[in-house]
Amino acid sequence: NQTIYRATLDFDGVFRMHAHYINNGSDKIIETLPKSSKTCEVKGVCGFNSYCTFDDDKQLCICLPGYKFIDENETTLGCERNYFKAECMGDKDGAAFYNMFPMNNIVWGDHPYSESGDISSEQNCSFACLVDCNCWAALYEEARCKKHGFPFRYVRRTREADESNTAFLKVGKNSVENWKQNDTIFSPQPAPIKTTNSGIEVQKANGHWEHGAE
Question: Which InterPro entries does this one have (predicted)?
């Protein structure tokens, strides 16, 4: 029995070992790395401003809320904003233009540009991002607020709660409902109404966080 082996590193970042059996002319993939259930862990498998997830055993790239596919026929190319970017005021006036949209079960593979242990809650972390001109997403993890700038890279969504976090994304107020209608894989979970020490009310409304003066 003679077999010819061929190894490929494909566009999706997966290493595949192929076998061609000379006797019967058949071909077979005999090994993949990472395994099919782990392909979302390959950095760059989905483009900027999208996240990688699974629907059953099918890997998907889905736009983050506030974004749309650059090319709907090539979803791995990433996504672009579907709202106009407002002039940044650098204070709570940003609440007039943006909401902080929560997404559960998020794993972020990129490094934040800012990380602070002085912010006491998820809600305060969300508000700190809202008023920061450079911040477009925040994660509150192990009592630390991690801010991410634009564009977003290496984001994946999982059902494994033991390794995931809630991310808060800054999005145009008119873009949230469109995203919610198109996201059929996961839906955001509700969060409690809370008030920050700074007098800024943070309330859960229609699936997103809103901020305003009391």
Answer: G-type_lectin_kinases/EP1-like
Q: Is the pLDDT of residue 179 over 90?
A: no
Is 111 a member of any domain?
yes
Residues 89, 29, single domain; the answer is: no
**Is residue 27 domain-shared with residue 112, that is, in the same domain?**
no
Domain that holds residue 4: 1-33
- In this structure, the answer to whether residues 110 and 205 fall within a common structural domain is yes
Q: Which residues does 204 contact at the CB level (< 8 Å), separation at least 6? A: 190, 191, 192, 193
Considering its fold, how many domains does the chain have in total? Answer: 2
Choose between 188 and 134: higher pLDDT.
134
**Is-above-0.90 flag for pTM?**
no
In a domain, 108, yes or no: yes
Report the 10 Å Cβ neighbour count for 195: 12
Q: 37 versus 137: which is more confidently predicted? A: 137
Q: If residue 128 lies in a helix (H) or strand (E), which one and from where to where?
A: helix 122-130
Q: How far apart, in whole angstroms, are the C-alpha atoms of residue 97 and residue 99?
A: 7
Residues 202, 214: Cα–Cα separation, whole Å: 10
**Weakest-pLDDT range from 39-48, 56-65, 142-151, 155-164:** 155-164
Distances from the Cα of 97 to the Cαs of 16, 104, 122, 131, 196, in angstroms? 47, 23, 21, 11, 20
